[in-house]
Design a protein that fits this description.
alpha/beta, Dihydrodipicolinate Reductase, domain 2, Alpha-Beta Plaits, 3 domains, eleven-stranded mixed β-sheet, six-stranded parallel β-sheet, 15 helices
Amino acid sequence: MSQEQLRPVRVGLLGIGTVGGGTFTVLQRNQAEIRRRAGRGIEVAMVADLNTDLAKQVVGDAAQIVADARAVIANPDIDVVVELIGGYGIAKALVLEAIAAGKHVVTANKALLAVHGTEIFAAARDKGVMVAFEAAVAGGIPIIKSLREGLTANQIQWVAGIINGTTNFILSEMRDKGLDFDVVLKEAQRLGYAEADPTFDIEGVDAAHKATLMSAIAFGIPVQFDKAHVEGITKLSATDIRYAEQLGYRIKLLGIARRQAAGIELRTHPTLVPMRRLIANVEGAMNAVMVQGDAVGTTMYYGKGAGAEPTASAVIADLVDIARQLEAAPASRVPALAFQPDELSPLPILPIDEVVTSFYLRLRVADQAGVLARITSILAEQGISIDAVLQREADEVSGEGGNQTDLIILTHETKEGAMNTALAGMQALPTVLAPIVKLRKEELA
């Protein structure tokens, strides 16, 4: 069949908010270019949104507008349903209903796929339809495509990413202005970088959802968000950001997935990264992902992780992929998680106590002889060696006078469990005057 004979792919949008509006706008603006790439037209035929007045403002008479998403799913002329509602609730039901109706699905919903992806991908496989989700991770950066196809020759060794723009903006502001978290969060909310309820962002959940999806594609494992280790940035202080700088590091919230012989590390937490790494210099609301492959070495992907048109760019890329593969037999299509479904690995997700990394420790201690010797002795008992030590008088940071001091210790690699045992011993010392700050450090070499 020639390109002229192929009918356009008809799309139903569920949700016409920021991303839905951006998707419609970019499709309209670039329709000729998209047709040249896809080999057929792609048109939004239906839009479902409870706010039909808003939908009318965005799409005018170019598409049928309904308030009921199920009317889109029931329409036999709709080929692809684009789910842009978000969350775990109605979005899950609608995605599964669309699949059951034989519709292909495009979604930007990382939370849904990270938690329920195994069920959704299995349902799609049974019905012979595609589920595409480039927009679910890092907005406009084509990281899913890169992991799934561009790096397919490689055994991926690790993936590490700044994949939440809100937290990266907050950390950049804390570093630039020397302000603590609470102050910067309020400013981020005022500027629109943070939601009124920023919990998923600042507690690391959003980044962990995205890291979960990347881990599945990188290593050929099922999505397992429930086994991820998740920490946010709410307890991070400007003091530690400043000390990290003095030691040559920046603190970033990273989603990390790493292959080990015993299993897969899957963790999201504030991380010290050497300033000389490109990713350490990613500022503001930008995203970046580093991937280490055995053949290609280190690659990095940088760009806008959110916004109407950057995210729309990823949604439309998925629509083009579906348009290109629409007539292909299901077995000939690129698998959703890169690996053939019956070839997924049983490698477990490692508990955080089994993860090996290096650490930054900050201890507020009494300024007296023998304190450092006792602390290093406790570390040595757990086989933990010290890479660097920085000592600062407490009055430099808190105005509390010269009878206290901050000890900042960088360690070499050790198991988290051993570090936690050492921390308990150090915290029990009468000369340790405040809760010890522990942050992980990654060289990303």
